[in-house]
Amino acid sequence: MSEKLIPLAELRERKAQPVRPNPEEAPRPDLREELFELEARGELIVQRVPEPYVEVTTKFGRTKKVPIDHLWHHKSCGQCGHIPGYTTSILWLNRQFGIDYVDPTDQTSCTGWNYYASATSNAVAQLLVMCRNFAAAYETGYYPLIHCGTSYGHYKELREQLVHHKELRDQVRRVLDKLGKPLVVPEEIVHYSEWVHVMRHRIAERQVVDMRNITACVHPACHYYKIVAEDAIYDPDIYGGQRTATVTALLQALGINVADYSTWFDCCGFGFRHILVQRDFTRSFAVLRKIEVMKDEANPDMTVTHDTGCVTTLDKSQFAAKAHQRRVGVPVLADSQVAALAMGAHPFRVLQLHWHSTDWRPLLEKLGIDWQRHWAEFEEDLAAIERGEKPGLTWEDAEQPILTR
Amino acid sequence: MSVATWSPTKAGQRYADVAEETKRQLFEEVKSDPRYPDFLYGCYECGICVSACPSARFYDFSPRVIAQALAREDIDRFYEILMEDIWNCAQCFSCVRCPRGNNPGGLVTLMREVAVRHGLEQAQQALQGYSRVIYKIMLKGNQVSPDMLQPDFFPDWGPWVREFSRNMSAWRKAIPVDTLRNVTDAAWRTDEKTLRELYTIWLETGNMEVIREVDEGLYELLVEIMEEELEAAS
């Protein structure tokens, strides 16, 4: 299969020619300006990015503010439901850096997974789910940080619809009035991987696990950089500015060898509906177009991504393929988990690797982490919970890194 | 190749028994969506969308044909796509690299909405086995929850699913995040008031009528629960 794909030499040639876009020549108007105009007309409130923030460049060369502190964690149902170490790692990183945050119970998912899977909703309902969550964040005074790539992409698309269609705004406002909530839209819609991206050098400063012997492939999440593409972070020093810089820049900061593969643009095969009720497509695509290509072209120790569906799909699809002697066996981690691991987070109390399916043990062994010892510690935790000695794990149990500098 | 000759078996005549008026009405419903002009600008026939499309590799599916059929208002071809193709889309939006600015994935979303609103048989077939997810999303505001990790639902995910399921209670208690710890029937702990606001959104926006077209029994169950909750709180 790899012979038919774009040759790696050609990819490297393209990457050697950095793209430096001029924001004055951007093909689309800056939606934020339109938001501020609507605010000036009294139609909605724009929640400002709080200080401190870091300015980054996006696809068309515009500047985007990424907040560092005062964060309202808009959690992901797929992460919290099926890969809880994803969320735990994000919050553990926040706590390690002393970030002031809210982990809300006044939050629903974006419901976008269902919308893209089944279409059993409509534009106004989807907009209201988004605006209700944004209003809930605004009421706390904290700024929303979106954990899920689909929520991030979906909200960006909904924001665009809200700005461009007065009839939708009027319908949304009618129901928000009934709920007693203001119509609020954040100045920037920010994905957690963007927070990780701007924190990468501080994460690297506190790195205790040497990762220089690790090779990783990156799967950029479709809903992060394909839906409303202009909001994604691009950097001329990463892939010549021709692909999003998030995830890759973090891995490079941690000393990991990021290996290229020719199907980087392909989706993972999640499919939204397919992953739940038509997984033959999902498994085939994930294995034939992603994992096997990575194996053949880069033979990575792990693949790293930054979205709920991608971790799920790439991780869970490998078992059945292995039964068919396909070339699989690449552990799949989120960037937040890699960052936390680099800073010495416990592989089970924090990364919660026992919820992953593809074998992660060889990766930990290559990193010099004694996973058997840490699993034994975690089993002790479970036994204490079973004995009723404690109701569950707390941050106090999980906060301490397994290694110190 | 033109749309008409793209596939000899899809020459726009397989639903000749369906009234022209029916096809036209469904097409007009898609076209009247306020998002439609943002999703379709024309088509260069360059095929970039197809080359990026995961579904085009595994199904008889083409985002280019969708954009062309809609742009030409070829309602016979539109109807075939509505009946046969839309549920194959992976909704990844790789197709939005279209140099014309089209969003074929978005067009599919609009067509799916119409298919569901009209309770088309193909929509019901595509969503078979999906009712438990709709139940969860409507009532809990989460697409998935830990207790859905059952071996009979995910047999192809390997023996670990059995482990997840067997150890669910203890493992969920061993998560240090306050809102996740010991929660198994939802992704995280959500306020009752938040859920009531969500129910209000579903009921006020006509979303529940959409559910009725997919599964009437589920609709009745959900509305009863939501109205009881809202009434009790008021």
List keywords for this structure.
heterodimer, A: 405 residues, alpha/beta, Glutathione S-transferase Yfyf (Class Pi), Chain A, domain 2, Rossmann fold, 2 domains, four-stranded parallel β-sheet, B: 234 residues, mainly alpha, Fumarate Reductase Iron-sulfur Protein, Chain B, domain 2, 15 helices, globular, Heterodisulfide reductase subunit B (chain A)
Radius of gyration of chain B: 21 Å
CATH architecture of the largest domain in chain B: Orthogonal Bundle
Number of individual domains of chain B? 2
CATH topology call of the largest domain in chain A: Rossmann fold
Number of helices of chain A: 20
Task: Kindly report the average pLDDT value of chain B.
Answer: 93
* DSSP strand tally of chain B: 0
Compute the number of structural domains of chain A. 2
Largest beta sheet: strand ordering of chain A:
9-8-10-11
The shape of chain B is: globular
Helix content of chain B: 55-70%
Our measurement of the CA-to-CA distance between the termini of chain A, rounded to an integer number of angstroms, reads: 45 Å
Describe the fold and architecture.
- The complex is a heterodimer of chains A (405) and B (234).
- Chain A has 405 residues and is of the alpha/beta class.
- Chain A contains 20 helices and eleven strands.
- Chain A has helices at residues 8-15, 31-40, 77-82, 84-96, 112-118, 123-140, 149-164, 166-179, 192-198, 200-205, 222-225, 248-253, 274-277, 279-297, 308-316, 318-323, 335-342, 361-366, 371-386, 395-398, and strands at residues 45-47, 53-57, 63-67, 71-74, 101-102, 143-146, 184-186, 215-219, 257-258, 302-305, 332-334.
- In chain A, strands 9-8-10-11 form a four-stranded parallel sheet. A three-stranded parallel sheet of chain A has the order 5-4-6. A two-stranded parallel sheet of chain A has the order 1-7.
- In chain A, helix 4 (84-96) packs across helix 17 (335-342) and helix 6 packs across helix 7 (149-164).
- Chain A is globular and about 60 Å long.
- The N and C termini of chain A lie far apart (45 Å).
- With 234 residues, chain B is an all-alpha fold.
- Chain B has helices at 3-6, 20-31, 36-39, 48-52, 54-58, 63-71, 75-84, 104-117, 121-126, 131-140, 160-166, 168-173, 192-204, 207-214, 216-233.
- Chain B has 15 helices and no strands.
- Chain B folds into two domains: 3-125, Fumarate Reductase Iron-sulfur Protein, Chain B, domain 2, CATH 1.10.1060; 131-233, no CATH class.
- In chain B, helix 14 (207-214) runs antiparallel to helix 15 (216-233).
- At the A-B interface, helix 3, helix 4, helix 5, helix 6 and helix 7 of A face helix 5, helix 8, helix 10, helix 11 and helix 12 of B.
- Chain A: Residues 10-28 have a biased composition (Basic and acidic residues).
